[in-house]
Design brief:
single chain; mainly alpha; 5 helices; elongated
Length: about 100
């Protein structure tokens, strides 16, 4: 219905999802949930460096995968919202025939 509103909505949705992933550490600690965030805090307290490195690598991989998925969705949504930007005729220079 609103194709031009789809691109910023998808982009901001991706930002919100990354904030939710980062907020799980705090929520798990406050409400005593067992999860990767609580494990990360316990690893820092106990100075378990290999576990800290593995968890940071896991969080980084999740953030990269999520941002890649959002970028792909924005590209697909952009090509559907503005098809004239991705058409081959839009790339041609308008030259006068001699």
């Amino acid at each position: 219905m609103f194709p031009n509103a789809l691109i910023p909505t998808v982009a901001l949705g991706g930002v919100q999802l990354t904030l939710l992933l980062g907020g799980t550490v705090l929520v798990e600690r406050i409400f005593s949930y067992e999860g990767i965030g609580n494990m990360a805090i316990d690893a820092v307290i106990n100075r378990d460096f290999p576990l800290i490195q593995g968890l940071i690598l896991t969080f980084a991989a999740l953030f990269i995968a999520l941002n890649l998925a959002v970028d792909v969705l924005v590209t697909v949504a952009g090509s559907e919202a503005a098809p004239w930007l991705t058409s081959p005729s839009a790339c041609r220079l308008s030259a006068r025939p001699d």
